[in-house]
From TrEMBL, chains A, B:
Cofactor: Mg(2+); Zn(2+)
Keyword Metal-binding on entry: yes
Name this polypeptide is given: NAD(+) diphosphatase
GO biological process: NAD+ catabolic process; NADP+ catabolic process
Family that this chain belongs to: Belongs to the Nudix hydrolase family. NudC subfamily.
NCBIfam families: PRK00241.1
Record-linked Gene3D superfamilies: 3.90.79.20, Nucleoside Triphosphate Pyrophosphohydrolase (3.90.79.10)
Length: 307, 307
């Protein structure tokens, strides 16, 4: 099975992958450089509506920094390939939850992969700031430092850094079929790879094995990493794997999984082609699960050359 | 290069890998089951000294649960292979920082891989509890819920979950050599793989490329995942990769890296064998960097059969 990093189909990455900003780590911790960067006439502010994207004519909206703006109220996302420093304003309020909305989900079909990645980074960071205005150590107020890449407590001086929550997302494979499941809240017919947060004290591979056993009663071996994706709802790192199951008898955890079944390559291919007779509705192309299924298909049954 | 999950040397894992506890997710959220589990005469409390391990005769110390103990003050680490529920007490105070101590580091040579993994899980969780007694959203007091696998704010009801911070740790490879670096605070002569936290909005592969460019001025392609390791100081998920460099000219970030050099397979082999003439002192065997170097050696230059 071919699953390595040089696969040419990585030119078509999952959503939020492929950012082109230089994150300019050296500027974040240098107040003089940061002030110069903020004052650069080329600097731009990513326009957002709360945490929601603002898109016009197929592009995110970037505006010049206002003359009366404060650098302390902004995060420096990075410098784009044309040399423009890109900031986002931290003074946002949360209006909804942390999950994907129709508007943020829809952005994938509207802007370039690079802009989608830029939005994802901004969304994760802003969500973290809004939810970390107080110090978890002492309850004091925190303020942004390091160009918005950390917060510091004014009382106990503890520093806090943005969360990235690793999630294992996986296909179990058995006799040419893969295990697909659905959660209660999903649209009718939608099935996808199982997934769960990686916990303290686990490897990626141990988390894959635990999740498959917890959710479906499946034991696996030979867990192989396939690819990863940042998922900004609010700040996951999706780590996609394929594992070999030791059997196909399912014991579902009804609180997590509404249903699950083993699907063969023809069924997966039909679902990904959107065929009405397909055995399930595939996850959207922006999801790493779509690409995981695509890579699995490429391994078990090479596709016909496209027309 | 062979770097897949069936490599028999995974029987000798890095430190903190290979835990054998069933994490019994279904008990955490069921108060009746949790109370029964806590009252189980077989239940044991992992004895710790603050966050430091307590080891006697090559084993961690596990004591019966005291009759007057409260389940609310404990985290349920899981159920061991003999059926004993294993708890740890949450009412600890931090005496030092979050880094490894000589005592916690030394545990690797004293107890089994399974017990080391159990200690690592407990240490990460307890450190998180001590540092999250207040709500980052509103500053209110939080209390443990879900058998110690979450905390909930008494004021705003926000739920908070233990952190796992993904870190990329990597070898860049160029013309049969790998890039090794050292930090200012390390023991003299010690060199290892470069590493850095994965940020919001990045894939694992993008983080590897960014870190190598930030710290050493190296551009890479074809980043390949090799293995992962939980590192409980305080709660990292080390994600080890090998990347192909496009050149070998180094530009070091002096704030992060004291020195770096390209080392050939003979030099790496000598260092890992502890030879006095070796060009550097290898990282300890409990570190994933040791295993990353070992896997790299196995790929580029198969070792002689051991005697």
């Amino acid at each position: 099975m071919r699953m390595h990093g040089t696969d040419p189909r990585l030119d078509d990455p999952p959503g939020f992958v492929g950012g082109t900003l230089d994150r300019v780590d050296q500027i974040r911790t240098n107040p003089v450089l940061l002030a110069e960067t903020f004052a650069d006439p080329a600097a731009r502010r990513l326009v957002l509506d709360g945490l929601e994207p603002v898109e016009v004519d197929g592009a995110l909206v970037l505006e010049p920094i206002e003359a009366d703006a404060w650098v302390e109220d902004h995060v420096l996302l990075g410098v784009d390939p044309t040399g423009r420093p890109i900031f986002a304003e931290l003074l946002v309020e949360l209006t909804g939850g942390s999950g994907a909305t129709p508007r943020s989900r829809g952005l994938a079909g509207q802007v370039s992969a690079q802009e989608l990645a830029l939005y994802g980074t901004a969304r994760s960071l802003l969500h973290w700031h809004v939810r970390h205005r107080f110090c978890a150590v002492c309850g004091g107020r925190t303020a942004p430092v390091k160009a918005g890449w950390a917060r510091k407590c004014g009382a106990c001086q503890a520093e806090h850094f943005p969360r990235v929550d690793p999630v294992s997302i996986m296909l179990a494979e058995y006799e040419g079929k893969v295990l697909l499941g659905r959660q209660h809240a999903w649209p009718p017919g939608r099935y996808s790879a199982l997934a769960g947060f990686i916990e303290p004290g686990e490897t990626i591979e141990e988390a894959v094995a635990r999740e498959l056993f917890e959710e479906a009663g499946i034991r696996v071996h030979d867990v192989r990493y396939v690819m990863s994706q940042p998922w900004p709802f609010p700040s996951s790192l999706m780590i996609a794997c394929i594992a070999q199951a030791t059997g196909d008898a399912l014991t579902l955890d009804a609180t997590e999984i509404e249903d699950a079944f083993w699907c063969d390559a023809d069924g997966v291919r039909a679902a990904m082609a959107g065929e009405p007779e397909a055995p399930f509705i595939a996850p959207p192309r922006m999801a790493v699960a779509w690409h995981l299924l695509d890579r699995w298909l490429a391994g078990v049954a090479p596709r016909e050359p496209s027309a």
